[in-house]
Design goal:
With 129 residues, the chain is mostly beta strands. Helix content is 0%, strand content 44%.
Length: 129
Protein backbone atom coordinates (compact mmCIF):
# COMPACT_ATOMS: atom_id res chain seq x y z
CA UNK A 1 0.00 0.00 0.00
CA UNK A 2 1.26 3.39 -0.96
CA UNK A 3 1.99 5.83 1.84
CA UNK A 4 2.61 9.04 -0.03
CA UNK A 5 0.86 12.20 1.10
CA UNK A 6 0.21 15.17 -1.14
CA UNK A 7 -0.20 18.70 0.23
CA UNK A 8 0.02 22.36 -0.64
CA UNK A 9 -2.94 22.75 -2.98
CA UNK A 10 -5.27 25.71 -2.89
CA UNK A 11 -7.24 28.32 -4.78
CA UNK A 12 -5.22 30.69 -6.93
CA UNK A 13 -5.83 33.02 -9.84
CA UNK A 14 -4.73 32.47 -13.41
CA UNK A 15 -1.09 33.44 -13.81
CA UNK A 16 -0.23 32.71 -10.18
CA UNK A 17 2.29 30.18 -8.89
CA UNK A 18 1.89 27.36 -6.41
CA UNK A 19 4.16 24.63 -5.04
CA UNK A 20 2.75 21.30 -3.98
CA UNK A 21 4.56 18.55 -2.10
CA UNK A 22 4.61 14.77 -1.97
CA UNK A 23 5.92 13.26 1.25
CA UNK A 24 6.68 9.62 2.00
CA UNK A 25 5.23 9.04 5.43
CA UNK A 26 5.79 5.31 5.74
CA UNK A 27 9.04 4.39 4.10
CA UNK A 28 12.04 5.96 2.45
CA UNK A 29 11.63 6.51 -1.26
CA UNK A 30 15.15 7.64 -2.15
CA UNK A 31 15.37 4.71 -4.58
CA UNK A 32 12.00 5.37 -6.26
CA UNK A 33 11.20 7.39 -9.32
CA UNK A 34 8.22 9.64 -8.54
CA UNK A 35 5.47 10.83 -10.83
CA UNK A 36 2.87 13.56 -10.46
CA UNK A 37 -0.55 12.98 -11.98
CA UNK A 38 -3.78 14.94 -11.95
CA UNK A 39 -7.45 14.28 -12.45
CA UNK A 40 -10.11 16.84 -13.21
CA UNK A 41 -13.82 16.11 -12.68
CA UNK A 42 -15.19 13.92 -15.43
CA UNK A 43 -11.78 13.39 -17.00
CA UNK A 44 -9.24 10.61 -16.99
CA UNK A 45 -6.14 10.83 -14.86
CA UNK A 46 -3.36 12.69 -16.67
CA UNK A 47 0.41 12.43 -16.36
CA UNK A 48 2.03 15.70 -15.28
CA UNK A 49 5.71 15.20 -14.45
CA UNK A 50 8.23 12.66 -13.21
CA UNK A 51 11.65 12.65 -11.59
CA UNK A 52 14.18 9.87 -11.28
CA UNK A 53 15.31 8.55 -7.90
CA UNK A 54 18.57 10.54 -8.14
CA UNK A 55 16.90 13.71 -9.34
CA UNK A 56 19.12 13.72 -12.41
CA UNK A 57 16.32 13.04 -14.89
CA UNK A 58 12.94 14.70 -15.30
CA UNK A 59 10.07 14.28 -17.74
CA UNK A 60 7.01 16.45 -18.33
CA UNK A 61 3.64 16.17 -19.94
CA UNK A 62 3.07 18.36 -22.98
CA UNK A 63 0.45 20.52 -21.26
CA UNK A 64 2.79 21.63 -18.44
CA UNK A 65 6.25 21.58 -20.02
CA UNK A 66 7.91 24.96 -19.58
CA UNK A 67 5.55 26.02 -16.76
CA UNK A 68 5.99 23.30 -14.12
CA UNK A 69 9.21 22.11 -12.47
CA UNK A 70 9.59 18.90 -10.51
CA UNK A 71 12.33 18.49 -7.92
CA UNK A 72 13.13 16.34 -4.91
CA UNK A 73 14.91 16.41 -1.59
CA UNK A 74 15.67 12.85 -0.56
CA UNK A 75 16.88 13.98 2.86
CA UNK A 76 13.29 15.08 3.51
CA UNK A 77 11.60 12.23 1.61
CA UNK A 78 9.84 14.91 -0.40
CA UNK A 79 9.15 15.63 -4.05
CA UNK A 80 7.95 19.07 -5.09
CA UNK A 81 6.00 20.36 -8.06
CA UNK A 82 6.49 24.07 -8.68
CA UNK A 83 3.65 25.32 -10.86
CA UNK A 84 4.00 28.68 -12.57
CA UNK A 85 1.75 30.57 -14.98
CA UNK A 86 -1.21 28.54 -13.80
CA UNK A 87 -4.25 28.26 -16.06
CA UNK A 88 -7.86 27.36 -15.27
CA UNK A 89 -7.32 24.10 -17.16
CA UNK A 90 -4.73 23.12 -14.53
CA UNK A 91 -7.59 22.76 -12.04
CA UNK A 92 -7.57 19.18 -10.77
CA UNK A 93 -6.73 16.91 -7.87
CA UNK A 94 -3.00 16.24 -7.99
CA UNK A 95 -1.55 12.88 -6.96
CA UNK A 96 1.97 11.49 -6.67
CA UNK A 97 3.04 7.88 -7.07
CA UNK A 98 6.29 5.89 -6.95
CA UNK A 99 7.68 3.58 -9.58
CA UNK A 100 10.87 2.03 -10.86
CA UNK A 101 10.64 3.33 -14.40
CA UNK A 102 13.25 2.45 -17.00
CA UNK A 103 13.27 4.62 -19.00
CA UNK A 104 11.68 7.31 -16.86
CA UNK A 105 9.07 8.07 -19.52
CA UNK A 106 7.40 4.70 -18.91
CA UNK A 107 6.06 6.03 -15.60
CA UNK A 108 3.15 7.57 -17.52
CA UNK A 109 1.39 4.19 -17.60
CA UNK A 110 0.61 4.56 -13.88
CA UNK A 111 -2.20 6.88 -14.89
CA UNK A 112 -4.25 3.83 -15.89
CA UNK A 113 -4.21 2.31 -12.39
CA UNK A 114 -7.66 2.53 -10.86
CA UNK A 115 -7.18 0.66 -7.57
CA UNK A 116 -8.20 2.92 -4.70
CA UNK A 117 -5.36 1.71 -2.48
CA UNK A 118 -2.73 2.79 -5.00
CA UNK A 119 -3.50 6.50 -4.92
CA UNK A 120 -3.42 8.83 -1.93
CA UNK A 121 -6.00 11.48 -1.19
CA UNK A 122 -4.36 14.00 -3.47
CA UNK A 123 -4.33 17.75 -3.12
CA UNK A 124 -6.85 20.02 -4.82
CA UNK A 125 -5.55 22.81 -7.05
CA UNK A 126 -8.13 25.28 -8.29
CA UNK A 127 -7.23 28.06 -10.70
CA UNK A 128 -9.78 30.79 -11.21
CA UNK A 129 -9.92 32.85 -14.38
Amino acid sequence: QIQLAESGGGLVQAGDSLRISCVDSGRTFSSDDIGWFRQAPGKEREFVAAISWSGNSTYYGDSVRGRFTISRDNSKNTVYLQMNSLKPEDTAVYYCAPDHADPLETIVVLRTITRDDFWGEGTQVTVSS
